[in-house]
Amino acid sequence: MAFEPFAARTHEKMTEVLMSPGAQGPAIHYYMVRGGSKKRNITVLETGTVGSEYIKTYGHYHIGNLDETYWFSAGEGVVLQQKLVEENGVAQPDRVEKFRAVRVKQGESVYMPPGYGHLMVNTGKTWLVMEDDSPVEGAEDSASTPGHADYEMVKQMHGFAYYVVDKGGIPTLVSNPRYKEVRKTDFGGIGVVDSH
Question: What predicted TM-score, i.e. pTM, was given to this entire model?
Answer without folding.
Answer: 0.92
